[in-house]
Amino acid sequence: MLKYIFKMIFSPRIFLIFVTAILIFATVPHVRAAENSADVSFGDWLKVFRVDAAKAGISAKTLEAALNNLEPIPRVIELDRRQPEFTLTFRDYMDRLVNAKRVTKGRKMLAENRKILEQVAARYGVRPQYLMAFWGLETDFGRLASGYFPVIGALATLAHDGRRSAFFRKQLIDALKILDAGHIDLARMKGSWAGAMGHFQFIPTTFSANAIDFDGDGKRDIWTNKSDAMASAGNFLKNMGWKADEIWGREVKLPKDFDFNLVSLKGRKPLARWQALGVRRTDGRDLPKVEMQASLVAPAGHAGPAFLVYGNFRAIMRWNQSQFYALAIGHLADRLLGQGPLTTLGPRDEKSLSFVQSEDLQQRLIDAGFDPGPPDGIIGSQTRLAIREFQKSVGLIPDGHPTLAVLKRLQKGAK
Asked: Which of 218, 257, 291, 332 keeps 20 to 30 A from 309, CA to CA?
């Protein structure tokens, strides 16, 4: 279950979520127009949904098998509502996701699956170590691929719930289409509480747009067929802009008194410019003399590691919007090829902010005249920018890193 917990904690969400109303039609008795689908009973909502699913072309046979006797799953709502008490520091995150055990297992799986991986790489331009890194982080190399929740039940629960009904309603329609096409049977269609499925945890719309029948058996089976699953992941990354001739990035060494205002995914500079600014490889050597644009990120602030990241890093973040996740993918891929660990993971004694402390930090930034976005306890790019502006205003190193020290300084006042 760790994989699912990690996604809840670290990402502004793998999914693009839009809160909207679901239309309730007068053709169903006792169902009134409602702002949220949860304003009506699950049974009445399901009657309306069934009509719309039929209009979307899903067969009566599939609708009967998938929706008859369907009930909401309370545990899904519990997980959707759960807010983590604490997030993890970069050190903790990397220790858990890119540790010696996973690297050892990954190298073994890389050797065992070399033939399929090279075939996928030849077609989609994603080298084997990267596919293995995604496989490792998503399902521990397939160990968690079977899932814990019935996908139709989980998606129907979330589609009815109302908080994110429009998004999950679309996922449910696509999940039914997957069943209707015979890619998987209902009993085996299991996934995460939010409907992510198979070896690489595709949501249904991602499956529809990217899944591949690599072995030509007429099914796109991302659950039990590794060749289909790996080809689908390669195709997804290619569609996200993956470049076959580039790496993801590299850890670098910054000069003393480096201007941390330059640390941002929003800004890109040629490698030659970063070289002129004093940025070097971790062993002190010059950066590569190639025409490539790069951004600089420092996930643990000025006391942690720094990375120059390239276009493929951004492709990883289209898969999962967390910088931590993208860095873990890149680093695990490097480790699978024999590279060593990072030079540092940040301070050992650093404590992460709790969810409540993160909300407090955001509210205090607002009170001090900075704009972190809504005080929701989620430290995203806008909050980090506000932290940086606050740090500059009080003479601190502007690394935008949310720490207990920053919170305490805000609690004392912005002056």
From this structure: 257
